[in-house]
Amino acid sequence: MTARAQRRMLNEVKKNPRVSARDLKKSLAHANISVDESTIRKTLNKNGVHGRTPRRKPLLSRKNIAARLKFAKEHLDVPQHYWQKYSVD
């Protein structure tokens, strides 16, 4: 695999970390570069890009959403000065 092909592949992975080795093989084939999927994986591993994908999870769980709503309802009538860390007198 040439250095140019490696750079091209690394740029694609940086743009989309979820791209698979199979998809990378197809995109390199469009550029007339024939590489096996295992070679792609090995090359990515050498460059510090391992077979991990970012975890898909919501930023807030249902439990946290409910707790935030409860807190907000409990503190609806609290005066403004309660929330100020330092008084500005």
Helix content: 55-70%
Biggest β-sheet: count, sense, barrel? Answer: none
- Cα-to-Cα separation, first versus last residue: 69 Å
Calculate the mean pLDDT score and round it.
87
Q: Structural class of the helix and strand makeup? A: mainly alpha
What is the approximate shape?
elongated
Structure annotation, total helices: 5
Write down the Rg.
25 Å
Q: How many extended strands?
A: 0
Element-by-element helix/strand order: HHHHH
β-sheet strand percentage: under 5%
Low-pLDDT regions: none
Offer a few descriptive terms:
mainly alpha; 89 residues; 5 helices; Transposase_Tc1-like; DNA binding
Topology:
Layout: H1 3-15, H2 21-30, H3 37-46, H4 62-74, H5 80-83
GO molecular function: DNA binding
Protein name: Transposase Tc1-like domain-containing protein
Pfam families: HTH_Tnp_Tc3_2
